[in-house]
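Consortium newsletter contribution from the modelling node. Members have asked for a concrete example of what our holo predictions look like. Here is one, prepared for the adenosine-2'-5'-diphosphate complex that several groups have been discussing at recent meetings.
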Amino acid sequence: MAIVGATGAVGTRMIKMVEESKLHVKSVKMLASKRSAGTKVKYNGEELTVEETTPDSFDGIDLALFSVGGSVSKKFAPEAVKRGAVVIDNTSAFRMDPDVPLVVPEVNSEALKEHHGIIANPNCSTIQMVMALEPIREKYGLSRVIVTTLQAVSGAGNRATQELLDESRASLDGKEYKPEVLPVKGDKKHYQQAFNVLPQIDVFEEDGYTHEEWKMIHETKKIMCGGDMNSDDIQVTATCSRVPVPVAHSESVYFDVLDKNATVEGIRDAIRNFDGDILQDDPDNQIYPQPINAEGKKDTFVGRIRPDQENKGSFHLWNVSDNLLKGAAWNSVEIAEYLDEMDLLRV
Ligand code: A2P
Ligand code: 11C
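And here is the predicted structure:
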């Protein structure tokens, strides 16, 4: 297999997730850009040399996990498939392609049967939200979702995390610091993230929503409504913000269910029994999900479940998950495990 982007924030976690996985791996090729070719990464205690990604890198590869920028995926993923590899891509490059399944295995593994070589891994903030909502949808039906995210800086890559740390130190020391990455590398302005909240993730669209907000809307529909990114079955709207947390996104989710007899206890039960979810919901003992406790874990943590007191069938929840693991590296490796178990690990 190959890991493309093996030196990045997600790629390094992919290495760890592959080490811990059930996959029968013969060898792993570590690929990145020319910049890091020749550097070493560790895999199962062994030092492997990082190679520059070229089309021929994929000769003899059965499975390629990509976590690079969208343009790099667009260039190399079809080359990998041409050479017989199944690609699991962690960028937004192919997510809205009707021929590419967009998969969170616990929610829609059936969609894997339709793959033609490329499978898309959803955006981190979408994954943890559908993980929290799917058990509720299965039990009570779901008609509307309003989400506000509080996302960790590592979602924007290793340079963004470094910027938060350096900027926090500079701020405490009373020194000047000029941000160059956040909120969005390449956008016109950069703002301080340390001790601050930025209501911008990814670039703005003409309608005033950010690209991240639209990803949450379309991806949620594609995953939960049988592949239809424009489905009316579930209404979704989002506000995405970045908080000065290194790892693990938090989300405040307001939702309407179809069954107006739904109860908080019933929702708690559904979440408790759903693979990959952990219920942390005990207000009397101040138990609720927190990013600091979710870092390094593969699960989605759900709590603060409570009814809207004025609207029957409407509820709030709070969910937290490691954006680099279930939000990215673990979900990708889990897709590979499902493909293997379903005998679909071939083009
Ligand atoms: P490199 O370390 O050589 O720049 P992050 O999300 O943390 O920013 O990481 C991005 C990952 O994508 C890194 O592993 C980076 O490698 C890799 N990458 C960036 N550009 C390319 C490219 N043109 N070809 C292959 N890998 C790339
Ligand atoms: C962030 N959610 O936190 C983004 C990163 O489409 O896979 C993931 C971007 C993507 O900045």
